[in-house]
Amino acid sequence: MTFKKNIVIFLLFALSTMAAKAEPFRVGTLEAPRGERVSGFLPVPEGVDEGSTIPVTILHGANDGPVLALIAGTHGYEYPPITALQSLRDTIDPAVLHGTIIMVHIANMPSFLGRTIYYSPIDGQNLNRMYPGDAGGTVSQRTAHQITTLIIDQADYLIDLHAGDGNEALRPYVYMPVTGNAALDAKTKDLALAFGLDHIVIDKRPTDAPGPTRFTDQTALVRGIPAITTETGQSGSNDPYWVELAQAGVENVLRHLDMVPGDERVNTGVTWLGDYQVIASPQSGIFRPAIRDGYVVTEGALLGVLVDFFGDEITEIRAPFSGVVNYVISTPPVSEGEPVAMISKIRRH
Predict the structure, then answer these.
(1) Please, which residues have CB within 8 angstroms of residue 150's CB and are 6 or more apart in sequence?
(2) Alpha helices, DSSP H, located in 257-309
């Protein structure tokens, strides 16, 4: 009797295990069976303003493994990551994939279709300041809510894929958050190194501050999910060089996480940066840069001149310290409080 009972228990366990492995992966109304790829739209319902949609692909591997969330198009004028995910969607085979990839192809559809930098043309908000979102808020808040609850909350790792916006000449780099949690920080560092860019900015924004998390990566980190933000492109360009940087970075992360076959490419030539500062324009006008992305500048070096709409000088803008120019505004108009440049100090790590 005991033997038969044990056999029954074993069979029930085996069947339950097989059923769990056969479970599809769901993101909202999208459902991907094991070993398959499914693409579709997540709705952002109408609310206090008009609604939107979020194009998403699920690659649900035939084999067990982690869930990696890849989010592109948070700013709609940042094209290379969007194009990179389209390519990766077709080149990654779910039949050999270990784990699951959730691709957000374009997080901010209103900005993408409206060709706007930073802000949604519907509510005037920056999506990457709206997290974790609000189901009853404006379209940017509702979008952030959908991405948080349907995607970030299911992830084991997250990469927020950016590029130089339509107004930013940018030298590629990675933001590597540091939280003070040793285990989480070690995984985040490994993720940053695996992405393969040669400049990594150590980002010490506090994750335990009261109030909304605001940023995509911070929203993942407070949930214990290793997360980085990458920058691969500039000035709204969709040149294949920038696209390939983003695609190669994701592919190496997949190898690092043992989600696809192949050896991880080791990143040995990193310049570590920290104590970064985004320098804002003191008033609206026209910015004439005196430097380029990637320049090394000394404290007090001229970054550019702000002139009024007649061309008369308002003020010179100078470097607050010696460091590397991560990006500089490359198109003339600037509004009060918006960036004109970002500079980081070179650090040992």
Answers:
(1) 27, 28, 42
(2) none
User: Same domain, yes or no, for 186 and 46?
Assistant: yes
Kindly tell me the sign of the dihedral angle through the C-alpha atoms of 28, 258, 180, 192.
negative
Whether residue 150 sits in one domain with residue 58: yes
10, with CB counted inside 10 A (0-12, 13-18, 19+), is: exposed
**Does 269 reside within a domain?**
no
CA 61 – CA 67 distance, rounded (Å): 10
Strand partners, 227: 158
Number of domains in the chain: 2
The CA R_g of the chain, rounded to the nearest whole Å, is 22
β-strand 63-71 against 98-104: which pairing, if any?
A: parallel
Q: Examine the domain organization and report whether 320 and 187 are in the same domain.
A: no
Between 159 and 20, the higher pLDDT residue = 159
Report the DSSP pairing between strands 296-297 and 323-329.
antiparallel
Residue 181: DSSP 8-state? -
Percent composition of the chain: helix, strand, coil (DSSP 3-state, to 5): 25, 35, 40
* Residue 258 backbone phi and psi in degrees, to 5: 60, 35
Boundary of a domain, candidates 221, 256, 291: 256
The CATH number of the domain holding residue 201 is 3.40.630.10
Q: Read off the pLDDT of residues 8-47 as tens digits, 9 standing for 90 and up.
A: 444 444 434 444 457 999 999 999 999 999 999 999 999 9
DSSP-assigned letter for residue 331: S
What global pTM score does this model have?
0.92
267 within a domain of the structure (yes/no): no
Q: Is residue 5 part of a domain?
A: no
164: containing domain? 16-256
